[in-house]
Amino acid sequence: MPWHLKPSPATGSSARAGLWISIGLALLVAVFLICERRAGHDWGGDFSLYISHARNLSEGRSYADTGYIVNPYFRSLSPDTYPPLFPLLLAPLYGRYGLDFQVLKLPGILCFAASIPILFGLFCRDLPAVQSLIVSCLWAVWPFALWFKDSVLPDFVFMLLWVLALRMLRVAYDEFPIRPVAHAIPIGIVAYAAYATRSAGIVLPAAILCYDVLRHRRVSRLGACIVAVFGVLAFCQNLLIHSETSYLQMFSMALKKTTTIYLYSVSTVFSTATGGWLRGVRNIATVTAALLSCVGFLVNMRRFRSPSELAVAMYVVLLLLWSSGSGTRYMIPVIPFFFLYVVTALDLFARNAGWRAGVAAEGSLLILIFICYLSEDLGFRPTRIAGGVSTPGFAELCQYITANTKSPDVFVFRNPRVLSLYTRRPASVYPEHGDPELIWNYSRGIHARYLIVTDFLDGDTTVLRPFVHDYGDRLRMVFSNANFRLYAFGD
């Protein structure tokens, strides 16, 4: 007997009750994550460029005047500017509280919480209220969010705008072709807002156009209007504030390496346990969920009710092609859809094989997943982030630089964006794989006055130590402490 693939959406009172429950869950999650913030920040680097942009906006300075100097021999480190929406959110907070990480972490936490009821509103158009709540809960208590909330990064803001755009698209296409222009303008604005947060938002208009062509054999009036609104706003951004040129210059493709990284990220989506019986539970849960998610994705593609599946697929392809940055952080926008496809496959099984078998299968997998979640949560400690900007001696180094160097003095450092944020001095990273002569020539070429060396940052031991050894007679140590050494370049 053929299986029935039609969705079973939540309706009436069950949908309303589920929405209120998801809103309550969002409030609880927001309060919990705010209370569990940890002091400090990791070394990273991306966060510092976003905050530097926010500082410029709050002080009325040029958006791009961050002090970061792009090294053409280390393009993969960072573009010279980032999209403007996240810095725009941070600007009033920075203007009021300064470099207070506890405050600057709030937008990400609040956006993560706000995404929970929006996801419910999207998923309940294909799933019953209970199953939609299960997906929302899997996202709300995802352990990685407990750790990632302590990063001042735009990923949760992008996540909120991404799912909001997909939710609005679903409503518009469900009502298609009624009032296409009335739907198109707000959708185009929200889709642009996602793009203005992370450039990966470009997949939204691409997915809309592909969906229209595949579903309707032409670009619909709705799709054309959305793309037009998006295009005008994106063009203005690229012309006036932030251009994608530097991103394109960073492009490199190492498909095998990137695929391996993301396969590992998928294998640890529920837990990072590497030993004992927990590893077995993790492996069973992950493999089962991965297979079910493939089934659920194909089922939703067969239904083809909106551009959502195309957007998710295009985003995944973009991740695999973009090798300059990879890891679990970049998978955040597809994680709730991974959960959706798992539950979609289980819901399909339950409706066609019987509710007893369905409940048993769904309950068994959820138990395994929540065991993995619990193991991760128990390992979390809300203590100050070790290392990073709290590394002993870093504050002392920055104070010395601020007091004893001039504003135009250029520095060479492994984390130039962090240094520029804390000292307001221009800085650049050294060549990634350069020999000592290349490092010297590059430093002279940007008129660098100082070099900072550590014993713990990646690259310093393998790249800078040989350089300091070979060019020691042209370097003069002017400051040192337990973790940092500051050299002045000689002639």
Write up what this structure looks like:
With 491 residues, this protein is mainly alpha-helical. Among the domains are: 153-250, no CATH class; 388-489, no CATH class. Helix content is 62%, strand content 5%. The chain has helices at residues 12-35, 46-59, 85-97, 101-104, 106-123, 129-140, 143-148, 155-174, 180-195, 203-216, 221-240, 245-250, 255-267, 276-303, 308-321, 335-353, 355-378, 394-404, 416-423, 436-445, 460-470, and strands at 68-69, 410-412, 427-428, 448-454, 475-480, 484-489. Strands 1-3-2-4-6-5 form a 6-stranded mixed β-sheet, with helices on both faces. Helix 2 packs parallel to helix 19 and helix 14 (276-303) packs across helix 17. The longest helix is centred in the middle third of the chain and has 28 residues, at 276-303. The chain is globular.
Shape: globular
- Overall mean pLDDT score? 91
The main pleated sheet reads as: 6 strands, mixed
Radius of gyration: 25 Å
What's the end-to-end separation, in Å? 83 Å
- Please state the oligomeric state of the protein chains shown: single chain
